[in-house]
Design goal:
By secondary structure, this protein is an all-alpha fold. The chain has helices spanning 2-33, 40-44.
């Protein structure tokens, strides 16, 4: 049981980090291209 819990926790942390990095990448891309409404991450926070 504890092993499953650890796996799930690590998976959740990994998914959260992945989402943050994707947002940061999209944020930088929008800023580079000059899309109005950037930054994306700033609006979510």
């Amino acid at each position: 049981m504890p092993r499953l819990f650890y796996c799930r926790t690590i998976h959740l942390i990994f998914a959260a980090c992945l989402a943050v990095s994707l947002l940061t990448l999209a944020d930088g891309y929008a800023e580079q291209v000059g899309i109005p409404g950037a930054p994306i991450a700033g609006r979510l926070v």
